Amino acid sequence: MRYATVLLLGALLASALLCDAQKKNKTKSKGKLKSTVAPSTLESATVELQRAERCTAAKCKLPDCRCSDATLPRPKFKGKEHEIPQALISSLALQFVTITFDDAVNAVNYAQYDLLFEGLTNPDGCPATGTFFLSHEYTDYVRVNALYNAGHEIALHSVTHGDGTDYWREATVATIEREFGAQLQILETYAKVDPQHVRGMRLPFLQIAGNNTFAAAKNLGLGYDSSWPTQQFKQPPMWPYTLDYLSVQDCQIGPCPDAALPGVWVSPMVTWTDTEGYSCSMIDACAYPPEDEVNALFDWMLENFNRHYQSNRAPFGMYLHAAWFSRGRNNFAAFKKFLHHLATYPDVYMTGISRMLEYVRKPVLGQPFKSCEARPKTQCQAVHCNVEKTVTGETRYMSVCDRCPAVYPWLGNPLGQAL
């Protein structure tokens, strides 16, 4: 009964949000490069970045640098461990799976997330976790706090979500900093999320702005971005890497970076393949999914997973929006079945992206982590607010921790203060 209720509510909410979204979205020189910054900032109008050079293993070494074309050995090298650097032998055994959800957290999809992760554990006995890339509008911050306290990774997806791809393609460093920096403030104030625990970001529509995106991430103190899909590097799949040197990743949704941005990690979105052989950057973006039947969907997920598990063990990403669960009668059941199937593997770990990157930076033999992640223990007194969104005059309802803002938080006023 609980499962059926969640699906019904999900269908109704997805329909309502879709209507709302449709209303809103009618729509190389050598040496130094320029990264655009809004002239209104106190900084100069441009920031000079060094053009990235080709990466070599001699120059780029873990834990803080990794070439984009670096690979780890495949299982076929078993028996030849003496020929492989010790730090990489573990790749013959471990497979990381990163489960990510984009956009707002609300009462309905929170119930779905709760059902999905309930009872899931990794081989080390630690709870399986996911990454939630949060946009601001319609988000229930009380439930964000619950996800955070449960050990899931909270990451950034902007305040406004933008008005189509052009907004993000042409975004300056300052625009991106404003969008994601404001969301960081909102999360700290209204969901009790420690900013030091927020390590990653994903651009809406997966539309990056070349160097500007990654320069902004670096300025905000973030560790990684996961907005960049790859079709070319999926067989074998691409591993995460840093932007200290020039990336070899194919530029599916440009512009893509060509500057040296030391220490900024890219968690590439290795595309899935649908039933007709077409690539899709997110599960819900596949044009030709399997028939709406649990076993057919499960087999399709397993086929995509095995492209990683049976080759170089690059992290396997399961990227989607929760609205996908309401698009098919059996999507949720198949997804849940697949996660529980993964939990039976002795060498598969379902973690947030930042946790996976800890391992990529410092790979070890055997068990990947010394202990389970410490869970936050924040106190959140739920309050429900009815406030004005001043830029439109609309009324917004929101649930937050402890106290209501005076007005709906937004760009320029992320704390929702009375002006």
TrEMBL record:
<protein>
    <recommendedName>
        <fullName>NodB homology domain-containing protein</fullName>
    </recommendedName>
</protein>
<dbReference type="InterPro" id="IPR002509">
    <property type="entry name" value="NODB_dom"/>
</dbReference>
<feature type="domain" description="NodB homology">
    <location>
        <begin position="96"/>
        <end position="222"/>
    </location>
</feature>
<dbReference type="Pfam" id="PF01522">
    <property type="entry name" value="Polysacc_deac_1"/>
</dbReference>
<keyword id="KW-0732">Signal</keyword>
<dbReference type="InterPro" id="IPR011330">
    <property type="entry name" value="Glyco_hydro/deAcase_b/a-brl"/>
</dbReference>
<feature type="signal peptide">
    <location>
        <begin position="1"/>
        <end position="21"/>
    </location>
</feature>
<dbReference type="InterPro" id="IPR052740">
    <property type="entry name" value="CE4"/>
</dbReference>
<dbReference type="GO" id="GO:0005975">
    <property type="term" value="P:carbohydrate metabolic process"/>
</dbReference>
<dbReference type="GO" id="GO:0016810">
    <property type="term" value="F:hydrolase activity, acting on carbon-nitrogen (but not peptide) bonds"/>
</dbReference>
